[in-house]
Amino acid sequence: MVTSVHARATDLGGVLVAKYPGTSQAGEFQAALAATRVVRVSLYASFEEMLENEDPIAIGGDLGKNPQELLAVIRSIYPPEKERLGVLAIGVEKTVP
Fold first, then answer.
1. Three-class DSSP category at 19
2. What is the pLDDT of residue 21?
3. Which stretch of DSSP H or E encloses residue 82?
4. What is 4-94's CATH number?
5. pTM over 0.85
């Protein structure tokens, strides 16, 4: 699932608030928010290295069943100059409301 995440820090124990797309009962778009706590941050040199060490399905849902296809989609979103800056994988768990 693709989300929009807004955070000031990715320190362990920090809280991220993710905005998930959704719809209201009337069928109108309404975003849902979910607070999560950071439990792990991993830095990788490339998207390939990330996909070798992380669960592709956790990253891309059903698209993760084909890691090469997932890699192509990720690269269509993030250009090479962004990938060269490094790739963060952030492990989170839901916080209790």
1. strand
2. 63
3. helix 80-83
4. 2.30.130.30
5. no
